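Entry:
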Amino acid sequence: MEIALQGATITMSTPILPINWFFLVMSPFMVIGDYIEKAIKRDYPMVNTISVEMYLLIVAMQVIGVTSFMTMLWGLTSFKNINLLFLCYVYLALNILTLVYGVISTLLGSVIGQLIFISMLLLATGDTYIPVLSSLMKIHFSENGVYLDIVTLILLVIVVLWSPYLLEKIDFNG
């Protein structure tokens, strides 16, 4: 597990896709799939007696639970030489990215959301620094550079908190 979270060293002569890392980072999005989209577009109109904010909070807690379980499982299986700050960063970043995926999949569809995240992760494997995503590789994680990533994550949290206002653009009949 530690080797999978390591990532890949970027070299010009041999471009390498760290498939284990790619699968680990992409796995929360694959497990959640279209659950968020269906929960909001199909199921919310049936239970619309509660506020949309409360319903989104319940859905977000379920999504965070799945992502947290997966991240903690990674940490427990790689406890030998794992950097605790790195594991905390992966935990925080993946939870926020999963919520951003939920917003994207609700507005654009889960397939498009997964395609966006697949392409962003592929870009992160070829570049040494893409905020938040490159630091998910242990080899690119820097304790000094984590502050810019935290600022980016805060901006993503603002987008997630703004999402109830974006629900006005959803067609619940489709």
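Residues 28 and 67 are 6 Å apart (CA to CA).
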